[in-house]
Structure formats: C-alpha cells, structure tokens
C-alpha cells in the first residue's frame, strides 16, 4: 500500500497541522511516513502546502510530482496544482472558496466538500483543516478516522487539547460529507 497526498491552501487554514496530524496517525498504524511542509514567507495569507506519503514499505522521496490525491482549500491552490493530479486520481475541493469549473479535467474524480460552511456550522472556521482531513481519510482509506482522533493529542499542543472533541467532530463530519459525495 502506498498513498500520497498534496494538501494546499493559504497560511492560516491549518494545512501544515493537517499534514502533521495525518503523519502521526499513519505512524500510530505502523506505516512508514514522509511529511514535507512548505510555506511562503508570510505567516497568514501566503501559500501553504504539504505532501504526505504513507506506505507499508520504504518511502523514497517526499517530493511528489503527480499526487494521487490533491486536497485543495483555496482557488489559487487549485490553479497552481490542479493540473498535476495523476490521471485517475482524486481532487477533494473546498467548494466554499473554490470554483472547479475552470479546471477542465475529466480524468480525475472531483469530490466537492463545502469545508468552510461545515467548519462554521460546527462553531469554528479554523476547523476547515480537520474537515478536509476527515474527507481525505474517508475517501482514501490511508488511515482510520479513530486513529486520526487519537493522534490529535500528539499533533496539538497540550494547551489546545480542550479542542480535541470539536476537532474529532469536524473530522467525522468531513468524512461523512465526502462519502455522501462519492456514493
């Protein structure tokens, strides 16, 4: 088994935390992981991406030229990375901020998830990353949702552990919506 994902958005959307959490969950499940974060010099509003490769065997380079899955949180990221998704791959799109009509790809599966609306309905827009991660985990099967929930203690600083139940709810909701969109 080998899964790779490119998560892309802008600074402040929690892209790097999502990748880090995914990595911790994969390690908890005994898989090999490569996590490669990248971000612009700006703290908020600049580009933020990360690549996570999960495998049963050895993981080579953390750089993935054509990801099998792209999780895109904003329009600029779709425009920059949409063409790179491997044919037959998956693009999970935050339809709250992204219009996929200009992508022009019929060789990939597009899964629309209104991530901002879901996060807002759950009480905190900052949970958009958890909604996205739940959608990815459900669609890809890379890690179990319960493992993601358990890994929150590792990925979040202790002062934020009080938010774990809300984050778990966001992960579960993102997974549920993504599975409904693929049915």
Automatic annotation (TrEMBL):
Which NCBIfam families does this chain map to? PorC_KorC
What keywords tag this UniProt record? Oxidoreductase
Q: Which Pfam families match?
A: POR (PF01558)
The Pyruvate/ketoisovalerate oxidoreductase catalytic domain covers which part of the protein?
11-176
Question: What is the name of this protein?
Answer: 2-oxoacid:ferredoxin oxidoreductase, gamma subunit
InterPro entries reported for this sequence: 2-oxoglutarate_synth_KorC, PorC_KorC, Pyrv/ketoisovalerate_OxRed_cat, Pyrv_flavodox_OxRed_cen
Task: Write down the superkingdom of origin.
Answer: Bacteria
Which is one GO molecular function term here?
Answer: oxidoreductase activity, acting on the aldehyde or oxo group of donors, iron-sulfur protein as acceptor
């Amino acid at each position: 088994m080998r899964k790779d994902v490119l998560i892309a958005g802008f600074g402040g959307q929690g892209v790097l935390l999502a990748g880090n959490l995914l990595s911790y969950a994969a390690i908890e499940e005994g898989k090999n992981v490569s996590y490669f974060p990248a971000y612009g010099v700006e703290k908020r509003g600049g580009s933020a991406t990360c690549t996570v490769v999960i495998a049963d065997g050895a993981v080579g380079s953390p750089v993935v030229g054509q990801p099998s899955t792209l999780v895109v949180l904003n329009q600029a990221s779709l425009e920059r990375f949409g063409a790179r998704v491997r044919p037959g791959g998956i693009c999970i799109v935050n339809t709250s901020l992204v219009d996929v009509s200009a992508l022009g790809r019929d060789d990939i599966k597009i899964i629309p998830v209104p991530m901002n609306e879901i996060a807002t309905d759950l009480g905190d827009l900052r949970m958009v990353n958890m909604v996205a991660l739940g959608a990815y985990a459900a669609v890809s099967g890379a890690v179990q949702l319960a493992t993601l929930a358990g890994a929150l203690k590792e990925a979040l600083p202790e002062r934020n552990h009080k938010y774990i139940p809300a984050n778990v709810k966001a992960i579960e909701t993102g997974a549920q919506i993504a599975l409904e969109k693929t049915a």
